Amino acid sequence: MQPQTLPPELWDSIFSFLYDDRPASLRSCAGVNKQFSELVEKYLYRKVTITNHGGLRAYPEAYSAEQMAKLLQNKPHISSYVRSLNIETYIFDTSIRIRSEKVLGHTISLFPKLTEISLSGCHHIMASWIIFHGEFQKSFAHILRLPTLETLTIQDMRQFPLHLLDYCTSLKTLRLLRVQAAMLGLHSPLALPSPPAQGLSNLLTLELSKGVGADLGPLIFWFISPKTPSTISLKALHIHLTHLYDAPLIQLLLNSKPADSVKSLYMNVNSQVRTVFHANAYNELHRTSSPSNEQIWDLSSLTSLQTIEISASIDFARVVSRYGSTILNASYVLYSPIPWITRLLEKPSLPLIQLRSVVIVLTLPLSIDAVLLLGKMDWKPLTDIIWLLARRYSLRSVEIRLMTSSHQHFHGETVTHDVQEILTMLEDNQHLEMLIRKGILKLNSSELAITFPSN
């Protein structure tokens, strides 16, 4: 069958599927004949990963800078096919790295239609902007100014100059993930024109994540500074919290002018916001700590907020008292984010009258004993505030999504969570059961999710 006998839409579906499923299969298609090669190339090179060292590639499909330069020399037309560029960098022998980065700098400047760019360290190892070769720095600053650029990710990077982002006038999504010691100064060795006045005025989504050694402070202070265009109207904000002492910084961001228009807030708080519960011999839970008021954000300033998604984890510990080799007593400690989440929804001095949807994603611990203790938690404060927001304001859907794999390994043993057992346990909780009976609460066993749709 000749390629032209099939409609373009079908070829698009076939090659897009092959690329997403197995890029190597797509490369095989390219070698069938010249006609297939011409059809396949625009899919094969739509997303490209280049590294500054071919022997330390994060992805098997990645190209070294030299490989991509040679490919473009033989097939210069494919440069216009590249839409997504992922640059993986690694710190190694200086002479080899400099030579590779010079080639990399020349190569990335040849892609005129990029819509997505990612610059990151290799295998989550921090790279440093200030040691990159000047040719690469200059070319990277150039591609940030492309009018087609919509998404930018800077990840696992030290000393990245934030003022370069002022040139991204068409940017819609910005992801700053584990960025350490970011530079706020406007001075740069690069010969750049003055940044345009509109700067990031088209930005709609901001994602911030802090890792070990990284610092959210410079990122937030840069974003909320008076130099940031007042025309920014964020629609979505993603925050990954790794330390509670960052909570005041996050509050500054939530209170800033660019956040006024946020409609969707996504928070990954991991195990940082947990409240401690001790279980007695009868498996009755008693709270022994509570989140402080300073650790809970006030969402009052987000007057346009319609959706909140909170991801958190439930942790568990078994405390054993021994006399020699004899176990005298064993008790359980449960660490739960539910009280913090409840307070988050209760705290706003101005009600979240626009809020329509809340998703709570809970990662369960490995122990089935901990999972069964969930049914004995006091769910009443959470269900009360949900019912209040649904009855008086705009809340229409609250989902509590319990995330756990069907088979997990704990001390070398396989642990199996029985989905139906977990659902039954939650149904038996008097507060959740009341909402089920009223038709407000629904349990979704296929997703292991709990849904609260408003009447």
TrEMBL record:
The residues covered by the F-box domain are 5-50
User: Mind telling me what this protein is named?
Assistant: F-box domain-containing protein
Q: Give the originating organism.
A: Psilocybe cubensis (Psychedelic mushroom)
Q: Which domain of life is it from?
A: Eukaryota
